[in-house]
Specification:
Blueprint: H1 19-30, H2 33-36, E1 43-45, E2 59-64, H3 68-79, E3 83-92, E4 95-104, E5 107-114, H4 122-137, H5 139-150, H6 155-163, H7 169-177, H8 181-189
Parallel strand pairs: 2-5
Antiparallel strand pairs: 1-2, 3-4, 4-5
């Protein structure tokens, strides 16, 4: 297993991580959450997989959903008795989506479903480019991101602040997802962006 570049589509890498990652692994496996969702290609994304979470951070799970009625039935059958359960469906830019929230094993959990493969969803792409950036920055970058997050910054705006990005942080990081490693490394080590 490559701990620097884990296969984020499988949660086994969490069992080799820091204490919070190990605890997240325990909750997801003991609660069989990924097993329940397996038909929908679930992927854990966000701050926990890349080690920049704070106490209170949630476990964000992406799902590829095409049959929303079937998905809703599974969600209610499996999770409606969990604390703080909520189910919200809406359409954004013509694309249906669902957001499910509940607590399990002391963790807030959010499941996001839309009819897009999980590894092509924005949440996955953001996490991957942030992981690649953190591989270059190292632990000092993690500390700086956590510090900004503890001061109220959301994750993507925290990266944008350190990177001195202009415009919408979410869109700019999505564009950086398509950059090759050399371009990303050169950009991060340039005089204008050597903040870490």
């Amino acid at each position: 297993m490559n701990l620097w570049n884990p296969d984020f589509t499988r949660i086994s890498y969490l069992s080799y991580g820091n204490e919070r990652q190990k605890d997240a692994y325990r909750v997801l496996t003991d609660g069989k959450i990924m097993d329940i969702l397996q038909y929908y290609h679930p992927v854990l994304v966000g701050t926990v997989p890349i080690g920049i979470d704070l106490p209170g951070s949630d476990l964000d799970i992406l799902c590829e959903v095409h049959d929303f009625h079937r998905f809703e039935e599974l969600i209610f059958l499996s999770f409606q008795d969990c604390d703080e359960f909520r189910y919200l469906s809406k359409t954004v830019n013509g694309i249906p989506r669902v957001v499910v929230n509940f607590r399990c094993g002391g963790w807030p959990i959010e499941i996001f479903g839309q009819p897009v493969p999980t590894t092509r969803q924005n949440g996955y792409k953001h996490m991957i480019v942030e992981h690649r950036i953190l591989q270059i920055w190292g632990n000092s970058g993690r500390r700086m991101i956590r510090d900004l997050k503890s001061r109220g910054f959301k994750t993507e705006p925290a990266f944008a602040k350190l990177l001195k990005l202009e415009g919408d942080a979410y869109d700019t990081l999505l564009k950086m997802y398509d950059w090759g490693q050399d371009k990303l490394t050169d950009y991060l080590r340039s005089d204008n962006h050597d903040t870490v």
